[in-house]
Amino acid sequence: MFIIVLSELTNVLLALNEVSNQAMSFDQYKLIEWRLQKELCRFEMKHPELEMNRFIKTLEENDLEWSMNEMHAVDVSKLNLKAVLALLVGIFCSEKCIEESQYSFFQDKKIFQCIERLKILNS
Fold this sequence. Notes:
By secondary structure, the chain is mainly α. It is built from 8 helices and no strands.
């Protein structure tokens, strides 16, 4: 299953790797945000067994809350596949409640940490 995650997010991963060590412009961020969100939605529809639509429950099962402070502070290296995906969905859903919240997760590299964790889980 891990291989599926990476193969479906390949294009986004390449784009993220290109900018991960650089200062990201807002335009770059918006493009990557859109692509990642699109791929996550596509992945969610193909893999209902991961219950990404129940991300809050998955976060709670991993002793996390769906809050900005919790999501920024979480140690991604300790999360399993389902929890990493729930965190990513939670980050993208946070934009509906707090304007530009996703941008803060790009700025503090939390989204990059999630992608790196997916790579590690795959190996």
